[in-house]
Design brief:
Elements lengths: L1 H29 L2 E5 L13 E5 L14 H5 L4 E8 L1 H9 L7 E7 L2 H6 L2
Length: 120
Amino acid sequence: MQIEKELPLIKSLKIYAVRVLLMGAIAFVTACSSVTIRPYGGEKDTSPPDYQSSKVFYLAGTIGEHEVNTSVICGERRVMQMQAITSLSDWLQSIFTLLIYTPRTAKVWCEHPAEESRGG
């Protein structure tokens, strides 16, 4: 008789736990992050970047170090914006590998001739 009274409580706790885990998983998967650097200020550039590459990191991003040589990418032009992004596809790859493989995407925008005539 005591067990029959506890069953609905256990069932409702399981449903609550599943909902909390599902909400947490959705928040984790959809959480994309970015760091944007604009050396000369101004608003964020949303045009396609001049350079974009996925960089490999391991163990939740604790192992791995990469450099992007902006002198090679932009040449004589100024670097207008740099960005490091953890995109949705990066997150999905990280989750699939249980955070062993955790890629991040690097992007670089260079100054274009039309920007030079406007003064940057």
